[in-house]
Design a protein that fits this description.
Layout (H helix, E strand, L loop, with lengths): L2 H16 L3 E3 L20 E3 L20 E3 L20 E3 L20 E3 L20 E3 L20 E3 L20 E3 L20 E3 L20 E3 L7 E2 L11 E3 L7 E2 L11 E3 L20 E3 L20 E3 L20 E3 L20 E3 L9 H11 L7 E3 L20 E3 L20 E3 L20 E3 L20 E3 L17
């Protein structure tokens, strides 16, 4: 007899002796459940998750006090008729099984509040699903459903409905009855529009329509006055219409990976927005009204075709994360200095040749990535950055790789909180002595430069764990490198060493 089965029998016996109300039999490799489970008539919670059960014994029907039954990740192809005896059941987890249908007996579970049937093989739901009148959460993710029965409208207490990763193209009119619904996940289906019945979802706060076949934002969305989160990413939407301005409670809006060419000025009406994702579209400009989003904390506009940003961008006084990489920007507006809450600025792979002097006002900046630009093409760009560095005292990540920088300023030493410095693929022949002041630095990448030597002050990098110096012109290392006692990785390939540097011998 398998060890797991014996363990299960032992635990059941102990639970019976102790009159326990909870029992865990998860991860025992069970292919069947001991019939002695029927002796635990006092049991309220039973965890059978992560086993290999293909059936449940009829003795399960004796557990009339059971409130929580977890069958996650088994191999059940059907539920026993005895399930109808579990009339006190409130939570039933059947995620990741082999179920294709539900027995009519499921209608007896009138106290059920949460039913999760995700990751099974359902092609339809029985009409008796409507008898589960107390249901608040229904999970149907990753099945093979194409439609819902009209009886779904009887679940008037439903708060969360997950229909993601199925094959839906429409919803029944009865969906309008779910006026307590707060979260509706329709992602990864085949919707081209939404039915008018959606306007009955007066309390809907979160709607996910990502990965569908929408070519426009459904007009009915404008009637969802309580909507706070709207995800429309990975569709084929070409414009943001005026109607979006009606969703004044929106806090998160994602339109990433669409075909957006223009944004309506109505975007400025969404003054409660905290997160706006417009990445991977075809935008060449932003409306001035974007500056009205004074509550915005995260703005993602990377991978578009932006050439400039409006000066009104400075109105985003609460912005903390700003991703604008992989555009065609040649300059940043002076008003960027007004983003005094900014902590993360990723502007890499643009065509920046200069930086506004106002960048020095971003004193809360922690991560700055300017790689893949042309900051040394015009001397002013690097000069401004150098002057700004001494103000960015909270910076702990700085990436200046793939520019044309020939010399780093001594001001780099002012970045005493810096933990990672990336200088790959530049024209550096040396590093400033002040580099030794970066006492918190853990990662230093200076590969693919023409470095000929390192400063003795390198010994100040007492926290350094990784130093990448490959593809340079080094022929020796300073003795000071022996002070880097925390160094775990030193990369020296493709240099001009003829013998192993003696300093390496001191590194333990």
């Amino acid at each position: 007899m398998a060890q797991g089965y014996q363990d299960a029998e032992r635990r059941i016996e102990e639970a019976w002796q102790l009159q326990a109300t909870e029992l865990t039999l998860r991860n025992l490799g069970l292919t069947e459940l001991p019939t002695t489970i029927g002796t635990l008539t006092q049991l309220q919670k039973l965890d059978l998750s992560n086993n290999y059960l293909t059936t449940l014994p009829e003795e399960i029907s004796a557990l009339t006090q059971l409130r929580d039954l977890d069958l996650f990740s088994n191999s059940l192809s059907a539920l026993p008729l005895g399930i109808c005896s579990l009339t006190q059941l409130e939570v039933l987890d059947l995620i990741e099984n082999q179920l294709t249908n539900l027995p009519e007996a499921i209608s007896c579970l009138t106290q059920l509040k949460k039913l999760d049937l995700s990751n099974n093989h359902f092609t339809s739901l029985p009409v008796v699903i409507g008898d589960l009148a107390q249901l608040q959460v229904l999970g149907l993710h990753a099945n093979k459903l194409t439609k819902l029965p009209a009886e779904i409208g009887c679940l008037v207490h439903l708060k969360e409905l997950d229909l993601s990763n199925n094959a839906f193209t429409d919803l029944p009119v009865a969906i309008a009855n779910l006026n307590q619904l707060q979260t509706l996940d329709l992602s990864r289906n085949h919707f081209t529009d939404l039915p008018e019945a959606i306007n009955g979802l007066a309390h809907l706060c979160k709607l996910d329509l990502s990965y569908n076949k929408l070519t426009a934002i459904p007009a009915v969305i404008s009637s969802l006055s309580q909507l706070q989160t709207l995800d429309l990413c990975a569709n084929q939407i070409t414009e943001l219409p005026e109607l979006i301005g009606s969703c004044i409670e929106l806090q998160e809006l994602s339109l990433s990976r669409n075909l957006l060419i223009n944004l309506s000025a109505a975007i400025g009406s969404l003054t409660n927005l905290k997160v706006l994702d417009l990445s991977q579209n075809q935008l060449s400009h932003l409306p001035k009204s974007i500056g009205y989003l004074t509550q915005l904390q995260k703005l993602y506009i990377e991978r578009n075709k932006l050439i400039t940003l409006p000066e009104s961008i400075g109105g985003l006084s609460n912005l903390q994360t700003f991703h604008l990489y992989r555009n065609q920007l040649t300059i940043l507006p002076e008003s960027i200095g007004d983003l005094i809450q900014l902590r993360e600025l990723f502007a890499y792979q643009n065509q920046l040749t200069n930086l506004p002097g106002t960048i020095r006002f971003l004193t809360r900046l922690e991560k700055l990535n300017l790689s893949g630009n042309q900051l040394a093409t015009l001397p002013e760009g690097l000069t401004v950055l150098c002057e700004a560095l001494s103000s960015l005292l909270q910076l702990h990540y700085l990436n200046l790789s793939h520019n044309q920088i020939a010399q780093l300023p001594e001001a780099i030493g002012a970045l005493t909180q810096l933990k990672e410095l990336v200088l790959v693929c530049n024209h550096l022949k040396d590093l400033p002595a002040s580099i030794g002041s970066l006492t918190q630095l853990q990662f230093l990448y200076v590969s693919h430069n023409p470095l000929t030597h390192l400063p003795e002050t390198i010994n100040g990098l007492s926290q350094l764990q990784k130093l990448n110096l490959e593809h340079n012109h080094l022929s020796d290392l300073p003795a000071a490198i022996a002070a880097l006692t925390l160094l775990k990785e030193l990369i020296l390939s493709e240099n001009k060493f003829t013998v192993l540097p003696t300093a390496i011998g001191a590194l333990t």
